[in-house]
Structure formats: C-alpha cells, structure tokens
C-alpha cells in the first residue's frame, strides 16, 4: 500500500471514529460513501461495519466508565442489536447490489429527516 493511500485511510478512520464517538453511532453512514470510492458496494458495507466495531467498543467503554450507560437499557438493546447485526450480515450477500444501495440511501434520508424534525 502506498503512503498516500495509508494516510487517506488513517484520516478517514479518524473521521469515522470521531463521528461514531460524537453521535453514538452512525459511523457507517460516513464510512460507506468513503469506502465506495475504492471498493465494490458490498465490500464497502462489510468493511464499514467491521471498522465501526472497534470505534464503537472504545467509545462505549469511555461512556460506560464515566457512568453514562444505564445497564437496564444497554443489555436488552445490545441483545437486539447483536441479533439484528447477525441477520443483516447474512442478508447483505443475498441482496442485489442496487437494492442494498437503495435501502442504505433510504435509511440515510430517513435519519436526516428525523434529525431535522
């Protein structure tokens, strides 16, 4: 890998981690468009999810150790997120690429509208 490519990926990873830490998730919405510049869509989605995991674990640990995480909310949500993540990862390879792109765009649009309202 060239130094220029490594620098871009490190910078992109730093932005992804900051977005994930600041907003409690949503890093994939930054990572996927960045990764689709160099990877096919399915690989971009999978890589985004895999790269969000360490950022989520680290930012989650910071929040937990500072007492900002109510366990009565965390535990059921973590179970649901884990199950959804498992089934989503199994579904992605079966979806046509165009369908995954449209679903992702609709999710981003819905999230944006929800934030504005």
Characterize the structure shown.
The chain is mainly α. It has one domain. About 80% of the residues lie in helices and about 0% in strands. It contains 5 helices and no strands. The chain has helices at about 5-25, 25-35, 40-65, 70-90, 95-115. The termini are far apart. The model has no long low-confidence stretch (mean pLDDT about 85).
**Morphology call:** globular
Helix content: over 70%
Q: Give the percentage of residues in beta strands.
A: under 5%
| Helix/strand order | HHHHH
Structural class: mainly alpha
| Ends apart, CA distance between termini | 43 Å
Task: Report the mean per-residue pLDDT as an integer.
Answer: 84
Number of helices: 5
Q: Which regions are unreliable across 5 or more consecutive residues at pLDDT < 50?
A: none
Query: How many beta-strand elements?
Result: 0
How many domains make up the 3D coordinates? 1
Rg from alpha-carbon coordinates: 15 Å
Largest sheet: none
SSE arrangement:
Layout: H1 3-23, H2 27-35, H3 41-65, H4 71-91, H5 97-116
Helix pairs in contact: 1-2, 1-3, 2-3
Keyword list:
single chain; 117 residues; mainly alpha; 5 helices; 82% helix
Briefly say what this structure is.
With 117 residues, the chain is mainly α. The chain contains 5 helices and no strands. 82% of the residues lie in helices and 0% in strands.
